[in-house]
């Protein structure tokens, strides 16, 4: 619905620099993640790690979700730091074993916790108890990816931005895409397997520190035709007197500067996902190349 209203997902990704992905089969109530984390971590512990960029999420295999008991479950830990991304897999038999993972090291970008995984994971948000459209629009995305990339594709709990469903997070690349159809999601995955970023419907690089820097990176990518994972990385942001931000973005051949402003909503409409929606977004001037290397 947001797409029909002219909403632009660029610059809307939540901050995530590292991940703890926990397999949880069966249906997910709205508080499913909180219930799982409560079995392994003391109160306040995960909030501290979240503040530093760690994002815990539940995952499950796409398809029908029965309330069955598994002898083991898969856990992934990952870091999305540019130039130093990694993804590792563990197998646990009890949720209490999560407490033994050195999450401080994960947040700091230090690997060595499990079996290294070479390919990216494709995580389609299907958390319908959080928002109906995550299930209605996310499940077809998850199914299409599972058919094309079995073992790499998972359903994932709430990643934020229900109005942008179907949402697809690529880990450890750290790019979040929104408003995807199944066919568009397949193209995202195809590019990711080649180490590239699909620019259409890109919400942002999750390790980018602010929405302003996310948007600036996307603007530079589109301006210069940059598709590599680390081809556009914001290195600084300055607040201007008119409330715009001027962002410096490093690319393989130099540094760009781009000024980003906030757009007002042009029109509103009703969405079954998020009630009354008035899409807002950003605008930017043409990137200026400051220096070449």
Automatic annotation (TrEMBL):
InterPro entries to which the protein is assigned, alphabetical: Aim32/Apd1-like (IPR009737)
Name listed for the protein in its UniProt record: Sucrase ferredoxin
Upper classification of the organism: Bacteria, Bacillati, Actinomycetota, Actinomycetes, Pseudonocardiales
């Amino acid at each position: 619905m947001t797409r029909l209203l002219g909403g632009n997902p660029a610059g809307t990704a939540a901050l995530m620099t590292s991940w703890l992905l926990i397999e949880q089969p069966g249906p997910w109530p709205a508080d499913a993640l909180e219930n799982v984390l409560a079995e392994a971590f003391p109160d306040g512990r995960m909030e501290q790690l979240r503040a530093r960029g760690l994002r815990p999420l539940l995952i499950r295999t796409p398809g029908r979700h029965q309330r069955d008991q598994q002898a083991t479950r898969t856990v992934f830990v990952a870091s999305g730091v540019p130039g130093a991304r990694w993804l590792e897999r563990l197998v646990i038999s009890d949720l209490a074993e999560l407490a033994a993972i050195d999450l401080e090291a994960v947040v700091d970008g230090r690997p060595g916790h499990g079996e290294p995984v070479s390919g990216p994971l494709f995580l389609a948000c299907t958390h319908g108890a959080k928002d109906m459209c995550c299930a209605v629009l996310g499940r077809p995305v998850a199914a299409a990816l599972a058919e094309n990339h079995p073992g790499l594709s998972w359903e994932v709990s709430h990643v934020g931005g229900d109005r942008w469903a179907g949402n697809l997070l690529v880990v450890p690349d750290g790019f979040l895409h929104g408003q995807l159809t199944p066919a568009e999601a397949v193209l995202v995955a195809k590019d990711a397997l080649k180490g590239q970023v699909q620019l259409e419907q890109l919400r942002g690089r999750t390790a980018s520190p602010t929405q302003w820097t996310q948007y600036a990176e996307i603007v530079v990518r589109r301006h210069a035709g940059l598709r590599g994972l680390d081809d556009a990385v914001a290195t600084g942001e300055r607040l201007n007197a008119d409330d715009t931000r001027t962002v410096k973005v490093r690319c393989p051949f130099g540094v760009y500067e781009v000024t980003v402003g906030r757009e007002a909503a042009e029109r509103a409409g009703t969405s079954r996902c998020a009630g009354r929606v008035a899409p807002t977004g950003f605008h930017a001037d043409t990137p200026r190349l400051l220096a070449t290397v």
